[in-house]
Amino acid sequence: MSITVHDATEVEAIVRAGAVAAATLQAVCTRVRAGICTADIDAWVREDTAARGATPSQLGYQGFPAAVCTSVGSVVCHGIPSKATVLRDGDLINVDVTSCFEGFHGDTSRTLLIGTVDADTRRVTEAARAAMWAGIEAVRPGARLGDVGAEIEACATAFGCSVVREFGGHGIGARMHMPPHVEHTGRPGRGPRLRPGMAFTIEPMLTLHPVGLELDEDGWTCRTADGSPSAQFEHTIVVTEAGALVTTLAEGA
Ligand code: MF3
Ligand code: CO
Ligand code: CO
Questions:
Q1: For residues 29 and 68, is the Cβ–Cβ distance under 8 A?
Q2: How far apart (Å, rounded) are the C-alpha atoms in residues 73 and 93?
């Protein structure tokens, strides 16, 4: 499966879709606080996405039942919003927004800390943020995906954290998930060579230590087997001559 090299018009469309996803994530995150439920986040994402003339890419994707993934605490990814999940002081939550605007997708997520969280929760969250940026900074024409994964892994290790290997980033464009699969670990000099016009996400999920994962009976919610916290950040980038163009930066973030 080959990696799409987008032309300038397509890159502009990916940039616009990224801006929409980023704006929705930003708008929703300002409303996240103790006492709300994750179903509230789903409602806000639906409203905000529609107000921008976009659609939530995740809704109905392979049967996913909501417009946004909300992953609380030990949930690694793909948490389903629910009225029963009420945020409390000390919680960590990842909010993952993917928007389709004029036929192209933007995908971005952030981990938020609710009130006062323990030191390990803070550490895994800061590690995930730093690991995402380490990966983004490794993007340039001629670099390889293994270079990107190796930088992410090295950053996670420097924080004493582990990279979840079961999930990766993905190419993005006219579809939400496209080739390549973007591993968040790797060996320098290995993997596909990056070229201007390629677009993909970098979205490392980190845990405090190597840990097995469990899938809930809902078929989506993925958790750490030992209940330890997991954090994630995600941006959609386009490879340019100058390096990574981050399409999902939010104003005011
Ligand atoms: N936004 C998620 C990602 O980063 C996609 C989740 S697929 C869904 O790739 F169906 F769970 F929404
Ligand atoms: Co993604
Ligand atoms: Co996402």
A1: no
A2: 6
Q: Nearest residue CA, atom 11 of ligand 1?
A: 78
CA distance 169 to 124: 19
How many beta carbons lie within 10 A of that of residue 105, not counting itself?
Answer: 28
- What are the tokens at 161? 């954290």
Residue nearest atom 2 of ligand 1, based on CA coordinates: 96
Nearest atom (ligand 1) to Cα of 97: 1
In angstroms, the CA 151 to CA 136 distance is 9
pLDDT tens-digit readout, 96-151: 999 999 999 999 999 999 999 999 999 999 999 999 999 999 999 999 999 999 99
d(CA 124, CA 161): 7
Q: List 94's β-bridge partners, or say none.
A: 71, 111
Report CA-CA distances (Å) from 88 to 2, 11, 114, 123, 222. Answer: 44, 40, 7, 19, 20
Averaged pLDDT for residues 12-34: 98
C-alpha 23 – ligand 2 centre gap (Å): 16
d(CA 91, CA 113): 6
pLDDT score, position 251: 87
Tally of CB atoms within 10 A around 210: 10
CA atoms within 13 A on the CB side of 50: 8
Set out the domains of the chain in order of their start, with CATH numbers: 8-246 (3.90.230.10)
Please name the residue whose Cα sits nearest to atom 12 of ligand 1: 58
pTM beyond 0.90: the answer is yes
